[in-house]
Amino acid sequence: MNHKAINYINDFICWIKKNQLIKPKEEVVKVNIGCGLTVAYGWINIDASLNAFFSKWPNFILKKLYKISGSKKIYSLEDYCSILKNYVFIHHKLEYGIPFPDESIDYLYSSHLLEHLFNKNAKMLLHEAYRVLKKQGYFRLCVPDLEYIISLYKKGQKEESLQYFFPDSKSGCLSSHKYLYDYELLHILLKESGFIKIQRCSYKIGDTPDIEILDNKPEETLYIEAKK
């Protein structure tokens, strides 16, 4: 089965579950949306990949999935299986919204997700983030920094810069960029979504828990925290 067929099947599974609603029981609720396999203990991790769908399945299934997964470029088989077995994953496509009730989340984290959504869907997701956060809740948002990407082009690193705009032909539907942002663009969108305190942060510095584990790609990333 080729990757295009696998993507169609995955999309169909996500569509069937598009109205799922998670009612968290934790006193402090921390949710990582579009997590991939970058996770931390105590977080609920939402992702649209088949990795999330097959988490907690028997090892012989995970071993087969690992062979066709892009994760094998980064993780050993042992680490891959351990992550899927020992962390909480929810298989869900965020274009259908964030599957939590109103004002039910204390901390929301998103790293290198927003740029994979068309601008219209990204705006919807930011409104969803505001909806599901409790009052005084935090949303840490990490994306490739458009200002940094343009600086690469100006410095003559044109091929590296253009890779952010034009994905490789082998990239799957979950890995291609649909839009890019700088601080000003995201500040406007977050403010329009209702957030009142929006600030630019540094790598692994902020009010969100576990960012020393979750934050990545410091050179290219714009880090923002928005408070409801």
UniProtKB/TrEMBL annotation:
Cross-referenced InterPro entries: Methyltransf_11, SAM-dependent_MTases_sf
Q: Where does the Methyltransferase type domain lie?
A: 89-139
Q: Which domain of life is it from?
A: Bacteria
Q: What GO molecular function terms would the record report? A: S-adenosylmethionine-dependent methyltransferase activity
> Which Pfam families does the UniProt entry name for this protein?
Methyltransf_11
Q: Gene3D superfamilies from the entry?
A: Vaccinia Virus protein VP39
User: What SUPFAM superfamilies does the record tag this protein with?
Assistant: S-adenosyl-L-methionine-dependent methyltransferases
Q: What is this protein called?
A: Methyltransferase type 11 domain-containing protein
According to its UniProt entry, this protein's organism is: Candidatus Fischerbacteria bacterium RBG_13_37_8
